[in-house]
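Repro:
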Amino acid sequence: MRISEEKSRIREEVWRKFGCRGKIPPFRGQDKAALLLAALPEYRRARRVFSPPDGAQLEARLQILKDGKILIVATPGLRDGFYGINPEEVPERLWKEGVSIRGIRRIGRKLRTSFEDIGEIDLMITGAVAVSLRGERIGKGTGFFDQEFLILRSIGCVREETPIAALVDDQQVFEELPFGEHDVPVDIIITPTRLIRIPERRKKPSELPSFLVDFSKRPYRELFGQKI
């Protein structure tokens, strides 16, 4: 079975368990996973933390602001690039709204896709449809987290050593999963009940796919063919 077919089979298996389809499954205990994230040494040292916009990371995004860290968020489908929220510049009463998918644009500051505007990201968090004890990750099939990582790496905001933590439910953790050449692995898995460090960190991809090579020089509308 080809990698793409095996990934599709696993996605359907997980989506059936969670009663959803086509997205990163929200899960019970997100607040507990966020608290385990907050205890992570890599998190405690971090000043800037990246998150995708999925609902499954909402509690983690709120925790990031509560802990006084700068939150960098990708907009859905990368249609509007990246936004930043600095809790020192946004009233606390707006934080909960600001970490929602719609609130990110209202409360956050739109960032240029440059190191000067985004800065160095110390930790990336992500959701997943499935992750493995070997660090393999399967997303919802759009490849946006992989693109986000590669874009940020291409402009120097993340590096090979930048840790990536996946926040998922225990049912989303597998022994091993299919893994493609351009897939971005995770280094840490956090569930509501446990924290798992991948014993042998997998090498992360470093080259942008051909259609993203000139990302830092080209506007989003040219890159994705969508109006901003």
